[in-house]
Amino acid sequence: MTTAPTRLFGRGSWTEAKRVTEVLRRETVGGALLLAAAAIALVWANSPWGAGYEALRDARVGPASLHLDLSLGTWAADGLLAIFFFVAGLELKREFVAGDLRDPRRAALPVAAAVGGMAVPALFFVLVNLGGADGALRGWAIPSATDIAFALAVLAVISTHLPTALRTFLLTLAVVDDLLAIVVIAIFYTAGLNVTALLLSLLPLTAFGFLVQKRIRSWWLLLPLAALTWVLMHESGVHATVAGVLLAFTVPVVRRPADGGPEAGPGLAEHFEHRLRPLSAGVAVPVFAFFSAGVAVGGISGLGASLGDSIAIGIVLGLVAGKAVGITAATWLVSRFTRAELDESLGWPDVIGLSLLGGIGFTVSLLITELAYGPGSAAFDHAKVGILAGTLAAALLATVVLRLRNRRYKRIHEEEVRDVDQDGIPDAWDPVDDRRDRPFAEG
């Protein structure tokens, strides 16, 4: 018996499509706030009142006895982004435990694309900066990140009817990308390691995991344990955002019968994600962008000098060409060496447009820039200019490609939403996928 080939960018299950639509709607709002915060910071830093911006960013608060007398910019990067990575960790675990990506055949594509979308930009950066200034190569990971909020804000601006399958792929790619980025940060950007503090951080982390596995959601128990894990992780020398991912991975995803009834209630990961995603997208990421995007470029001449630096060139090349080549090549390799085929409603220009969207790097790229070069250095400022320029170029190119395909996307969108049955599921979703829409049993 011949089995049907796996469809790359197939629609997947209706449950997953509905969930992803809700997630992307929130991320789009967060992306708009991120854009606004970055624009305000950039304008303020280059205004006559730029010194005020630097004074605010560098103002130190916190208890010195705990080594937590940090600048507001550092609090945003180490503290608020831990919330962002906690939500990303919840999303990733849910995708692979209870989402469509629990099927290895479906998981192969976004994982391969994320790896290709990180490796090729890093390679481009290294090639540009070989033999460059001392320490330039420390920024090799900067162009490897994809900012899902920024990318979705671009989608909202161009009003594309991007099919659900492509949106799902973009979201999953960005989440896997974030996880790989946090691994890179933990391994390659840890200057010194306090083993005692690192081991001690496992105690509150274990206690947090024990409580959530018992489905205890009392904030007055969980929040102190999470905060203590973060403090000890920060003290250990490992970047504190790693704590957010580790905490997320302890949260159970599978649903269990609610109050002993036959129907399954929402999993705890879904509950936390619902509560914290607005805080992450609406507060944590925009505030981080505000404190990180403000770089004084020194007018047209200063901007030209920054863009002419090899660090900025490597970042722009990595974000624009590296991401497009890496994601598209990985997708082609998956289709070439497996039985997977591109969905009949899509073409390779759609993959290229999506790959260009993957070149919209911002949040994690700025975080790695700070870790690689340190605030205040010339390399730090050049890298920021490169991130802004590369992100803008990738966004413009993606807009051109996706707008050219928008008529096709509109037709696919109309097919997806019409002919809704009494159960509320459009006929476009294959009935055989209904088994994936059933509540997940515990165990």
UniProtKB/TrEMBL annotation:
**Where, per UniProt, does this protein localize?**
Cell inner membrane; Cell membrane
Start and end residues of each stretch annotated as Disordered: 423-443
The topology of this chain with respect to the membrane is: Multi-pass membrane protein
Q: Which UniProt keywords apply?
A: Antiport, Cell membrane, Ion transport, Membrane, Sodium, Sodium transport, Transmembrane, Transmembrane helix, Transport
The question of whether Acetylation is a record keyword is answered with: no
Superkingdom of the source species: Bacteria
- Residue ranges annotated as coiled coil are none
What does the record give as the reaction this protein catalyses? Na(+)(in) + 2 H(+)(out) = Na(+)(out) + 2 H(+)(in)
Q: Does the keyword Transmembrane helix apply?
A: yes
The annotated regions of Basic and acidic residues compositional bias extend over 432-443
The record's listing under InterPro entries reads: Na/H_antiporter_dom_sf, NhaA
Residue intervals passing through the bilayer: 28-46, 66-87, 107-128, 140-158, 170-189, 195-212, 279-305, 311-334, 346-373, 385-404
Q: Where is the signal peptide?
A: none
Record family assignment: Belongs to the NhaA Na(+)/H(+) (TC 2.A.33) antiporter family.
**Function field:** Na(+)/H(+) antiporter that extrudes sodium in exchange for external protons.
Write the protein's name. Answer: Na(+)/H(+) antiporter NhaA
Q: What is the species listed in this Swiss-Prot or TrEMBL entry? A: Blastococcus jejuensis
What gene name does this entry carry? nhaA_2
